Amino acid sequence: MKIRTGFVSNSSSSSFVVIGNRISLDKITAKDIKDGKIYLVEDDLYREEIDFFKATAKMISLCKTKYLPLRAYKVHKLDAGGGLLTKDDMPDEPFRIMEMDISNHHTSSLADFKNRYCQD
């Protein structure tokens, strides 16, 4: 997924609300990855479009062994604005609420991840 920080006129993007927290790579559990709660986002938040995508165990492993310009987030709720958020959607620990315009042009596979971030 791409996060757009500027004016959005592309009809292929949708506005999302993300409830979650930044998490260090060493605190990510296999269960978090298996449950689809870990997302990666580009470190450069000043670009017009920022890649935001669900992480796999192999992606996390590559992030730990190479310096990659990515941050990890544990996402508790990702909502496209179709429903109401209730107190049941909120985690017990402190959290951030982020609004993003996410495009369909995002990292979608391990091969895509390696092509974008692991080029030497």
Question: In terms of topology, how is this protein built?
Answer:
Elements: E1 2-4, E2 14-22, H1 30-34, E3 38-42, E4 49-54, H2 57-65, E5 70-79, E6 96-103, H3 110-117
Antiparallel strand pairs: 1-4, 1-6, 2-5, 2-6, 3-4, 3-5
Structural descriptors:
120 residues, globular
Descriptive report:
The chain is of the alpha+beta class and 120 residues long. It is 18% helix and 34% strand. The two termini are 24 Å apart.
Basic shape: globular
Number of domains: 1
Strand runs, count: 6
Radius of gyration: 14 Å
Strand order of the largest sheet: 1-4-3-5-2-6
Largest sheet: 6 strands, antiparallel, barrel
Q: Round the mean pLDDT to the nearest integer and report it.
A: 81
Helix content: 10-25%
Q: How large a portion of the residues is in β-strands, by DSSP E? A: 25-35%
**What letter string, H or E per element, gives the SSE order?**
EEHEEHEEH
Structural class, from helix and strand content? alpha+beta
The N- and C-terminal alpha carbons lie at a distance of 24 Å
Give a short overview.
The chain has helices spanning 30-34, 57-65, 110-117; strands at residues 2-4, 14-22, 38-42, 49-54, 70-79, 96-103. It has 120 residues and is of the alpha+beta class.
